[in-house]
Each structure stands twice: as structure tokens, then as C-alpha cells.
Amino acid sequence: MFNKILIANRGEIAIRIMRACRELGIKTVAVYSTADKNALHAMIADEAVCIGPAATKDSYLNTKAILAACELTHAEAIHPGFGFLSENAGFARLCEKCGIKFIGPAPEVMDAMGDKANAKQTMVSAGVPVVPGSDGVVRDIAEAKVICAQIGYPVMVKASAGGGGRGIRLVEREEDLEAQYTAAQQEALQFFGNDEVYIEKFIVNPRHVEIQLLADEHGNVVHLGERECSLQRKNQKVLEESPSPIMTPDLRERMGSAAVAAAKVSGYQNAGTIEFLVDADRNFYFMEMNTRIQVEHPVTELVTGIDLVKAQIRIAAGEELWFTQDDVKLSGHAIECRINAEDPRHNFRPCPGKIKSLHVPGGFGVRIDSAVYQGYEITPFYDSMIGKMLVTAPTREEAIMKMRVALSEFIIDGVDTNIDFQLCLLKDEDFEKGNFDIGFLNRKNVMGE
User: Fold this and answer.
1) Is 292 noted as a catalytic residue in this protein?
2) Which of 207, 292, 338, 396 is catalytic?
3) C-beta of residue 92 within 8 angstroms of C-beta of residue 106
4) What pLDDT score was predicted for residue 449?
5) Cα–Cα distance between 423 and 403 in angstroms, integer?
6) Which domains, ranges and CATH numbers included, belong to the chain?
């Protein structure tokens, strides 16, 4: 087991990793930007190193500074969390070269699964259902027209190296294809430095359901059930839950088996997530693989009782999984609401500022993962997430009621938040019935304003 781990991240995920490390008896090193000098993760780590100014490219994406901090503090491993360098194969290779363990999959696997077009071909070879579309990258608009004519409109043009909703365009008719194809390429080049795109059939009103995986370095792979992630705004997740309201034992078995097969064929190790689209007839299709811990990982922890971050660390240290697929049992229902510093009444614009007063809810079955405190300054330099509110209860109905109560007790003064929006969503009749899909929040104003 490691003696010391550097956490190459900030905010609530850095705190989450620190807690797991401490429970395993591992010392922690935080890195922080000048804008985060008063951040909680920088204050409570065993050691903290400033790695640059506020801009992410000069700090949390500054690989040289992070590796120098690792060498300075004699940390043996780096946990990247999510975002920033978590899916950067080049950084993982630098860690290997420096003799530092990267807590995640091998860089070769990150390369293969991070490229969406290549990942799709890997899934085909594993027998995993995929959305009809191009066989890899589309070379030009002429090829795009042929493919779209074959699979039929509507289609999605997607950045091959994309993520976070960037480089994606919906095309509903042939006359719009060229403009949307070019727009997707340009956005992909801007955000990912790679303008390659591929094309998929657009599945009308699908659900977004993902399967959590753990894979050790000894060939053992298990899935930990599913998370329902269909409640999204502009491709950004808002609320997640487990189990999914549409899940059946048979569907879970088939989706879980497909995800395990995908991990095995790709040689995957550590924690990972296979994301699927599920249509109205419960047919499922591979969408992408996330080669890191997910923001919504606590939902799975609450229904399985398995600490995913501890599992990541133990796997990276060479340990075998201590349980089998037969040992995994889902118990009760968990819901996560992402609490952001944003104004839902003005198109969810970010609202940086100082938290003047703070009251967080508690009680049986309530969990909050956050890194804010009274007097904390939310800066404009990073994402607007304040934290994650989670509840668990025996049934979905009880979990919804528990979340409503918890949200109504959550008081944050000084910045606008989406707490009222989440409350309205929890009280929405369609949500209560489980009657929603990926486009639900883009079609419906749950606040009724």
C-alpha cells in the first residue's frame, strides 16, 4: 500500500479522496492554485503545494508543476479525481516515466477508450450493442452524406475526442448536414485539439443509464449496477439515482454483462463507467466509456456499500478485488442532486461570490460531499458546483421525500444556487412517475416560470 498520495484536483472530489486515503492510513498531498489558497482541500491535507496562478492551464493542468510537487513531497502515487488530467493519457505516461503510480487505467487503454470512434469499434468486437452509424471517423462531408442516407435522419455528429457535451450537433434533415458537420468539427478542434468527428443515428427520447465497473490488475472485473443519469441540462447531469426507474433484473443482467465484456476486451483496470442509451423498448446501445471516477459515484456507493475511491487505491496498489459479482447486492434507493452556484431564473448563469452563511442538512440517510464553508469565496475560475447532496432510503418514493426535506433545510446565503430548481424537479409529477428522458429538462420548465 502507498504511504503518500498526491491529489491532482480541487474541491469536493479532492476532499473525498483525502478521506479515503486517511481511512487507509495514507498521507495526502494537496496541490492548489493561487486562487485556491484558502480552499478546504489545501488546508486539511497533510501537505500542500502551490502549483501556479488561477488559470487551469497554469495550475491544475500544469503537468510539470504537479510532477515536481510529487517529487518534492515524495508522493508515490497520483489520484487525478475527475476532470482536469483524469483522462489525459499523456499525463499518465509521464507518471509512469517518473516512477509514480497513476491511479487509473493504463494510458494505452485511455487512448483507446477516450477516442469515441475507436471505442465504438472496440465495443463491436466485444459484442456490445452500439448505435448505428459510421465505422469510425468520417473523413469528409461527402462520406457523411452517404452514411446519413443509409441510417436515416435524425443523426448526431459527434467529436471523436469529445466529452462534456462539446462537439455534438443534432442534424434532422440533409440540408442542415454540412453546416452542422462543420460546426461540430470547429468546436471539437477548439476544445480538444482534434477535429475528427463520427456520426450516429439519433435515438429519439432515450434514457441515459450507466454501469459502474471495478477491474483489478489480475483480470477480475465486476459491475456494481446502474445509475440513472437522464436528467440533464445541455448535456450536463443535474440529478442521478440508483436503481433506474426503468430497470428490470433481466435488463440489469444484460447491461452489466455487456459492460464487463467491454472492460475485459479493452484490458481495463481500476474504476470505470460504461454509458448507455436505452430506448423506449429497453434496447440499449453503447455511448462512451469514462476512464475515471465519476462525479455521481456516491450514488453507487450508497446502494452497494462499496467505497469506490478506496477500491481505486487498493487496485492501484496491486490488490485483488475482495468480492465477486455474486457478492454485489443493490439495497434501497439513492438520489444525488448537484448543488451549483448558478441562477436558474437567468439561464443558469454562474454566480461566484462569498458564502455569507451556511446551514447544511443532516439526519439518517443524508450525505453531503462538499468543500465549501461559511466565508468561502466561490471564484469565477472553475466550475460552479458547490457540492453534492445525496440521500438513501428503502424505496424511491421515500428517497424523493427525504431529498425534498433535505433540500428545504439547505441554506446558502451570499450566492444564488439551484436548490429551488432541484426542489421543483423533485416535486414534478413526471419525475415522480419516472417518466423522463435525456431531453426532459430541455423541454420542460419544472419551475413553472
Assistant:
1) yes
2) 292
3) yes
4) 65
5) 8
6) 4-103 (3.40.50.20), 132-201 (3.30.1490.20), 207-443 (3.30.470.20)
